[in-house]
Amino acid sequence: MRIAFDHQAFCLQTTGGISRYFCSIAPLLASKEQAVAIFAPVYRNQYARDLNKGLVHGLGVKQYPPKAASAMVLANAWLSRQQIKRWQPDVVHETYFSNQPSAPAKTPRVVTVFDMIGELFGTDGADANERKRSKKYAAVSRADRVICISHQTRDDLVRLFDIPEDKIAVVHLGCEQAPPRSLGAWPSTVQNNDRPFLLYVGLREGYKNFDRLLAGLAHSPTLRASVDLVAFGGGAFTAQETQRIQRLNFRSNQIRQMSGDDQTLDQLYRSAIAFVYPSIYEGFGLPPLEAMARNCPVISSQASVMPEVIGTAAEYFDPNEVDSISAAIEKVITDDSRRRQLVGLGAERIQQFTWQRCAQETLAVYQRLHSGRILT
């Protein structure tokens, strides 16, 4: 089969989960004796630059000229369509959402939907008519097959966009399998602090529920006395967040924000006493799997997609109840046997989420489309 990926994710993102997804499955598809090509004439994606040069048809740059990013994306769209047309693929996987198709006429099209966060929590979901004017709706509507990364996302897509369920395939993401840390002594320090710390990863506003996590920590005398919280990524604390932390009377530096590269995050997962995931909604939820891969116990909200992805490998709490958050965290940080149990459950659970499996199931979607095209 000849499988083409268009330019979008590689021109819109320098790094990020969407481009990482495509750069993870593309070489694995090629290893399965498929002809695979990414058509991104002038791209700025770091992961694509690291791929085998035979996979990427284009020139990688570190960044686009200032104020020229939109023009570069438009130019890439036109050039990518021409390249794909000449290559004559059997299937085209559009890597993001656009009003204009990347595939030649009558060539099967696939698009992946990662979540419906914009429609559920942002301005994209003001009403049904507005949703149907979006680029996402245009891409999903013209696609011959839609891949959703969870059953939660599939259900939301069907409900909000009125997409037939039989048009959708659920293919879970993979997670990088990392060498686990030793199960001996639990590391407890970071940034020269001598107290155990909980790890939080990513953005913090709105549905991420970070404010209620802070309230849960402040609510418990045990947690106040025995544990810190490191929030990795998401930018420095805003003035409003800093004021909230101060109003809750945490000790100096008990709640702190860190930034860094993948190696820094890897070390934090390995050093944390537990990883906490308080989100009210996610389309998939990769950080808990990243924690499991590094033998870091997971404490998670029991909402949205989390039980689907995490299974039994977490201590769950009600994300809307401060008491529930406090109790779940207390149980894990004060009980070494429970932490070890969660580590064992996580090590088993992570085996279900490999990029090899993701690539194989994605290939099956392409093959069904291709076979149907031949038969008709």
In short:
The chain has 376 residues and is of the alpha/beta class. Helix content is 44%, strand content 16%. It folds into two domains: 2-174 and 354-375, Rossmann fold (3-Layer(aba) Sandwich); 197-352, 3-Layer(aba) Sandwich (Rossmann fold), CATH 3.40.50.2000.
Describe this structure in words.
With about 375 residues, the chain is of the alpha/beta class. The protein has 2 domains: about 1-175 and about 355-375, Glycogen Phosphorylase B (Rossmann fold); about 195-350, Rossmann fold (3-Layer(aba) Sandwich), CATH 3.40.50.2000. It has 17 helices and 13 strands. The protein has helices spanning about 10, 15-30, 45-50, 70-85, 115-120, 130, 135-140, 150-160, 210-220, 220-225, 240-245, 260-270, 285-295, 305-310, 320-335, 335-350, 355-375; strands at about 1-5, 35-45, 55-60, 90-95, 110-115, 145-150, 170, 195-200, 230, 255-260, 275, 300, 315. The strands form 2 sheets. It has a 7-stranded parallel sheet with strand order 3-2-1-4-5-6-7, sandwiched between helices. A 6-stranded parallel sheet has the order 10-9-8-11-12-13, sandwiched between helices. Strand 11 (about 275), helix 13 and strand 12 (about 300) form a beta-alpha-beta unit. Helix 2 crosses helix 17 (about 355-375), helix 9 (about 210-220) packs across helix 15 and helix 13 packs across helix 16 (about 335-350). The model is unreliable at about 180-190 (pLDDT under 50).
